[in-house]
Write a structure and sequence with these properties.
The chain is of the alpha/beta class. The chain has one domain: Vaccinia Virus protein VP39 (Rossmann fold, 3-Layer(aba) Sandwich). The chain has 5 helices and 8 strands; from the N terminus they run αβαβαββαβαβββ. It has an 8-stranded mixed sheet with strand order 3-2-1-4-5-8-6-7, with helices on both faces. A hairpin with a 7-residue loop joins strand 6 and strand 7. Helix 1 runs parallel beside helix 2. The longest helix has 13 residues. The two termini are 27 Å apart. The mean pLDDT is 94.
Length: 192
């Protein structure tokens, strides 16, 4: 993820509401699990996962400025942060990989998704819905593309994932709900 798009914040009050809702959704499914928060940015999501009951959370990001913020403001018991490049990842074994707003930033997401499959039996991910928010380089300079439901399903299946449930956010203010017609696809998948 480009440094220009990361949300470097020191308080949950400053986090975009749509991002908070996605992490709250993920946190409900992470209780008692060992979790990787891929492209964790400044770390608020990793902290939210831990505070909701994840057994441990490893936040990974390539951006040193974001990791400095994470270590300074979002360290919690059971949370650690590491510099890690998701373009060519080797990931430790965990129970769950959380990938909120990551895949659309990667020039080639397949190595990350395959490494996630090797690391964990479950994946929670979210991406912008191309059918609702069409991709353009001008509007989204840090994104590589957006995905229709079919494109995202095919990508995940190609990388060894089976989509269990489609969730979505209808607007920037919406909570995550079952369905697939919102502005953001939110997916729960299991290892094939």
């Amino acid at each position: 993820m480009g440094a220009g798009e990361q949300h470097v914040v020191t308080s949950l009050d400053d986090v975009r509401l749509d991002h908070k809702h996605r992490y709250r959704w993920a946190a409900r499914q992470a209780k008692g699990l060992r979790v990787i928060d891929a492209a964790c940015g400044c770390g608020y999501g990793a902290a939210m996962l831990a505070e909701a009951g994840a057994a441990s959370v490893l936040g990974l990001d390539i951006n040193e400025r974001a990791l400095e913020c994470a270590l300074t403001h979002w360290t919690r018991p059971g949370v650690s942060f590491e510099k890690h490049d998701l373009i060519a990842p080797e990931l430790p074994e965990v129970d769950l990989v959380v990938s909120i707003e990551t895949v659309e930033h990667l020039p080639e997401p397949r190595p990350f998704l395959r490494a996630s499959r090797q690391a964990a039996p479950r994946l929670l991910t979210s991406v912008p819905n191309e059918a609702v928010i069409p991709f353009s380089r001008r509007s989204f300079p840090y994104h590589q593309r957006h995905y229709t439901r079919r494109q995202l399903r095919e990508l995940l299946e190609e990388c060894g994932w089976v989509v269990e449930d489609w969730w979505m956010q209808k607007t920037k203010l919406s909570r995550v709900k079952l369905g697939s017609k919102g502005r953001t696809h939110v997916v729960q998948a299991r290892r094939a």
